[in-house]
Specification:
42% of the residues lie in helices and 18% in strands. Strands 6-8-9-10-11 form a five-stranded mixed beta barrel. α4 (51-61) packs across α5. It has 449 residues and is of the alpha+beta class. It starts with a helix and ends with a helix. Mean pLDDT is 81; it is low at 337-343. The protein contains 15 helices and eleven strands. The protein folds into four domains: 2-99, no CATH class; 102-183, Zinc/RING finger domain, C3HC4 (zinc finger) (Herpes Virus-1); 192-299, Archaeosine Trna-guanine Transglycosylase, Chain: A, domain 4 (Roll); 304-324 and 346-448, no CATH class. One of its GO terms (molecular function) is zinc ion binding. Keywords: Metal-binding, Zinc, Zinc-finger.
Length: 449
């Protein structure tokens, strides 16, 4: 308003404004409609310089123009081009006030302007971006008393400023809104945000602590877009080649997660609860505002018929191998001595010789045994978070991997696998590893005693 006042005053002193005289008549709109006026005041008539826009501003500045008044204009000078003067002044005011309508974070026109308690205005999204990093106002450095995910109910937009923007520059505002909308489109086909932190599993709950600013932004965008989904990938610190992607900083296969619940902390960090939707493979990747985005391809299991054929083929191959081994045994020389290892470690399962049902039964038996032994990784808190052990062999590997206390890299093959049987074999191999480690710990502490 200070800029407008200064520019109108400067305009009044020009020759063009001095030559234009208007008789301005202000009257209550109810009187014009034939209704008895609610105000017992005389009609105000003024002769002013500068055209309709400058004259109306002058009457308002003098306090003689009520917000519900009607104004009529009568030129008093010959050859007055009031419309040309009005358009010129309005265009000049738009140019000079343009900088005042820019957000000091994104330097674009205010979009959903939000005025803070310290009196500074920013785009609503820019306030969110600021809160991703700190709770300090970018201009005056005062503490912002706003929640990290402030919405229109908690902190409504500046209505007056919104009306001014839409009235003064509707085309620019429409373009600004389109640009903001395009921001959610990511990088074209790279339309899936990727959180590189850990493994997630289909149908299983995954809990995440979000504290980095780039991932705060990513999660907020996922929620605001309405999809509430993002991909989670395991970091690849050794940069092992990942197919066509090469030595990228993440493993190629991951899980698409759906955000179920979110809890914000006062400092902007958040805890989110998600559930696995499906597995995917990254085909292409890029970066958007510091976090990874990618083009992904869904990964599904082979059909039931293919599963049965796979098991039958493995059992047939095993049978042929055993027949050959038996023949070699009968052909062995007398007094043949076995060189089998007699270590005290638990014998590992021969997963290739086990049926799919036997693999599932071995996993279930192991979990029941450990639960009877009150293993810490099967405590009531863990089961409350991840649920009870599923009775479906399709779901069992995902649940088992989520609760099993082994490094995520050891479980990664489960995400790559497209066969239930293969995943059950991996689970049995993992439980054998757990059993061996427990035996080593028992031996070590036994020696100490």
């Amino acid at each position: 308003m200070t800029v407008v006042r200064e520019e109108v005053e400067r305009y009044r002193n020009t020759t063009e404004a001095s030559d234009a005289l208007l008789q301005v008549e202000e009257r209550d709109k109810w009187s014009i409609a034939g209704v008895s006026s609610l105000r017992d005041e005389e009609v105000r008539i003024r002769v002013l310089h500068g055209g309709r826009l400058a004259s109306t501003y002058a009457m308002a500045e003098m306090g003689e123009l009520a917000h519900d008044s009607e104004v009529t204009y009568t030129p008093t000078s010959p050859g007055s081009a009031s419309e040309i003067l009005d358009n010129g002044l309005l265009h000049h005011l738009k140019e000079t006030t343009r900088a005042e309508m820019d957000c000091q974070v994104c330097y674009g026109l205010f979009l959903e302007p939000l005025t803070t308690a310290c009196g500074h205005t920013f785009c609503r999204q820019c306030v969110h971006r600021v809160l991703d990093h700190s709770n300090i106002c970018p201009i005056c450095r005062r503490v912002l008393s706003l929640p990290p995910a402030t919405n229109t109910q908690q902190s409504p937009s500046n209505i007056l400023l919104t009306k001014l923007l839409n009235g003064l520059c509707p085309e620019a505002m429409a373009e600004r809104a389109e640009m903001a909308k395009a921001e959610y489109a990511g990088l074209g086909e790279l339309d899936t945000p990727l959180f590189i932190c850990t493994l997630g599993y289909p149908s299983v709950t995954t809990f995440l602590h979000v504290f980095e600013p780039r991932y705060r932004l990513m999660i907020r965008r996922a929620i605001e877009s309405g999809g509430r989904k993002f991909g989670v990938l395991l970091p690849n610190p050794r940069r092992e080649p990942q197919g066509d992607l090469g030595p990228v900083p993440f493993y190629q296969y991951g899980t698409l997660l759906d955000i179920v619940d979110m809890r914000f902390l006062r400092d902007g960090r958040s805890y989110i609860q998600t559930v696995g939707v499906s597995r995917f493979r990254v085909l292409k990747h890029g970066t958007l505002d510091g976090y990874a985005v990618g083009k992904i391809e869904r990964v599904d299991d082979i059909s039931v018929a293919q599963e049965e054929a796979l098991e039958a083929a493995e059992m047939s191959a095993l049978l042929r191998t055993r027949n050959l081994s038996a023949q070699d045994h009968f052909d062995a020389p007398p007094h043949h001595v076995s060189t089998q290892d007699t270590s005290r470690e638990p014998a590992a399962h021969d997963v290739d010789s086990m049926s799919t049902q036997d693999l599932f039964a071995a996993g279930v038996a192991f979990v029941k045994k450990k639960r009877h032994e009150t293993a810490a990784w099967l405590s009531s808190q863990v089961l409350l978070a991840y649920g009870e052990m599923p009775e479906d062999p399709v779901l069992f590997p995902w649940w088992f991997a989520a609760v099993l206390p082994l490094h995520e890299e050891l479980k990664y093959k489960l995400i790559e696998s497209r066969s239930v049987r293969e995943r059950l074999k991996i689970c049995v191999q993992l439980l054998d590893q757990v059993a061996r480690e427990e035996q080593r710990y028992a031996t070590f502490f036994g020696c100490l005693h």
